[in-house]
Amino acid sequence: MSHAAAARRGRPTGTRSRARAFALAVVWVAAAAPTAAQPPPTLATLVERVSPAVVNISVSGSVPVGNPLAEDELFRRFFQLPPESRREIQSAGSGVIVDASRGYILTNHHVLENADRITVTLLDNRSLEARVVGSDEGSDLAVLQVDATDLAEMSFGDSAELKVGDYVVAIGNPFGLSHTVTAGIVSGLGRTGITGPDGYGDFIQTDASINPGNSGGALVNLDGELIGINTAIFSRFGGNIGIGFAIPVNTARDVMEQLITSGTVSRGLLGVSINNVTPELAETYGLRDSSGAIVMAVTPGSAAEQAGIRIDDVIVSVNGKRVRDAATLRNAIGMLRPGERVAVGLVRDGREQTVNAVLGELTPTTVAAPPPAPEAPPALDPVLAGATILDHDPSRPELRGVAGLLVESVAPESPAADRGLRPGDVIVEVNRQRVRTLDEASRIMANARTIMLKVRRNGRDQLLLMR
Q1: Taking the C-alpha atoms of 216, 218, 219 and 223 in order, what is their torsion angle to the nearest 10 degrees?
Q2: What does the CA dihedral 235, 237, 238, 239 come to, rounded to 10 degrees?
Q3: Nearest-CA neighbor of 256 among 93, 143, 97, 132?
Q4: pTM of the model
Q5: Higher-scoring residue by pLDDT: 80, 120
Q6: What angle do CA 348, 349, 350 make, to 5 degrees?
Q7: Between 435 and which of 107, 151, 238, 441 could a Cys-Cys bridge form, CB atoms 3.0 to 4.6 Å apart?
Q8: Helix or strand or coil: residue 434?
Q9: Backbone angles phi, psi at 55, to 5 degrees
Q10: Is 28 a residue whose pLDDT tops 60?
Q11: Rg (Cα) of the chain, in Å, rounded?
Q12: How far apart are CA 42 and CA 271, in angstroms?
C-alpha cells in the first residue's frame, strides 16, 4: 500500500504518528505530576491530632542486690554478712491518655515494674506525678492516673476490624527520644506467646519501627483511633528489625475496665490440661489436620467436667473461633471472665460436636513437687528412663482391679518425671491401645514417633504426652 493510500484509510503518516505520541506523553506527565490542588500524601495532620494524647513515662525505683558471698556456706557460718542492699534504677516508657476527664493513662505492666516514683511528661512539656490504678502482669497492661486539666485523649478503635496489610502509625518514646512517629502495616494478627508462657492475649504484629522505650505507646490507624498498645519486639541486638507487637485495643479496654473497677483482673477457667496436636497425634486420632488442643486431663468439679468434656477430646473452637493450638485455647479462655457461658467445639471419636460450659475462676496455684523416689533402671523407652514399671499383677492392691502396668517408682528429675509420670500411676493404654505387659507396651512404642500414655491416677484417667 502506498503512503497516500495509507493516509486515505485513516492511518497517520510518520509525522502525524510522532506528533500524536508526543501529545499523549505530555498529557500523561501532566496527569502524574502533583499540582497545587493535589498535594503529596502526608501523615502530618493525623500525627498532629493524636500526639498530644501520647505521653512519656519516667520510672525511678530500686531493686534488691544479693550478696554473692551469702551463697557460700563457709562465709555464712563464720562471717556476719551485711543485709541485702538495693540498687537504684531508672527506666522509661510510653503511655496513652484514654480518658482526659479522669486522667487515665494506658501503658504496659513491665514499664512500671519496681517503680517507687512515676513521672508523666506531656507533649507540651508539663511533668505530672502519676499513681498506679492497677497493673496486670498476665496481659502486661497497667492503668495510671494523673491530676491535670486540659488533657488530650485518644479515641478507641476496634481491633477486631483490623486486617493484615492495614496501614498503622506507632508513637512513643524510643531510646528516650520523645514523641517519635513511625509508620508501617499490620504484618500479622493473633500472635501468641509474645510475653512468655504465663502471658495472655493475641497480639498484633507490625513492621512499624518499635524500639525500647516504645512500650506502652500507641498504635494508631489512619482514622486516628487507638487500635493497639505497643509492647514488645523480636530482636537479636535490642534494636528494631521490623517485627514489633502490640496488644489489641479491645483486649486493653477490657483489662482497663477491670483494673479501674477492682484493681485486679479476673480470668476464666475451663479446668483442663491440654497439649498441642502434632501431625503424628492427628494421624493417631484420625483428625483432618493438626489444629486444636488435645485434652490430657480434666479437673474434678471443673467447668469442663460439668460440660461433659473428656480426656482424648480435641478442642477445635471457642465461641465459634478456631483454636489453632494449646496456646490459642489458653488465651481464649483466659481473656474471658468467670461465669461466662462459652460454646466449646470439639472432636470426639472423629465426630464434631459442641458443648456449653460456664467458666470458673482462675486462681494462682502452687504445684507440689513429687515425693522422692529411689533410683531406677532405664525403662521401656528413653522418655521413660527413671521409672520402674511392672507387669500387670491383679494381686497387687495398688491396681485396685485396674488392668494395666504399675509405675512402682520414678526418680526425681528423670525423663519420666519431667514428662509427668508419678509413682502409683497405672498405665492402661499406650497410643490408644490397651496394655497389660511390658512386652505389649514395648511393641507399641517401637519406632513410634509419638508416645501417648493413658494413666489412671487417684481413680481418674488422664493423658501424658511422652514424645
Answers
A1: 160
A2: -80
A3: 143
A4: 0.67
A5: 120
A6: 90
A7: 441
A8: strand
A9: -120, 155
A10: no
A11: 31
A12: 51
- Superfamily grouping for domain 382-465: PDZ domain (2.30.42.10)
Is residue 307 within 8 Å of 357, Cβ to Cβ? yes
Residue count of the chain:
467
Q: What is the pLDDT of residue 8?
A: 41
- Residues involved in catalysis: 110, 140, 215
Cell of 303: 467447668
On whether the CB atoms of residues 172 and 54 are closer than 8 A, the answer is: yes
Name residue, grid cell 517485627.
Answer: 243
Question: What amino acid is encoded at 181 in this protein?
Answer: V
Q: 345, 332 in Cβ contact below 8 A?
A: no
Tell me the mean pLDDT in the region 167-180.
82
CATH topology of domain 159-262: Thrombin, subunit H (2.40.10)
Q: For 394-413, what is the mean pLDDT?
A: 79
Task: Measure CA 16 to chain center.
Answer: 67
Cα pseudo-dihedral 420, 425, 430, 436, rounded to 10: 160
pLDDT in tens, 190-236: 887 766 666 787 889 998 878 777 788 899 999 999 999 998 665 45
Which homologous superfamily does the CATH classification assign to the domain defined by 48-66+85-145?
Trypsin-like serine proteases (2.40.10.10)
- Sorted by sequence, the CB contacts under 8 Å of residue 149 that are 6+ apart come out as none
Cell of 203: 497480639
pLDDT at 151 over 90: yes
383/417 Cα distance (integer angstroms) = 9
- Predicted pLDDT at 365: 44
Q: Residue 290 corresponds to which cell in the numbers above?
A: 493438626
Residue showing cell 563464720:
78
**Could you tell me the three cell numbers for 75?**
562465709
Neighbours of 369 (CB within 10 A): 8
Please say if the pLDDT value at position 270 is more than 50. yes
Separation in Å, CA 165 to CA 47, 168, 230, 329: 20, 9, 18, 26
> Domain 268-361 belongs to what topology?
Pdz3 Domain (2.30.42)
Yes or no: say if 121 and 141 are a contact pair by the CB < 8 Å rule: no
Place of cell 505530672: 128
pLDDT at 10 exceeding the cut of 50: no
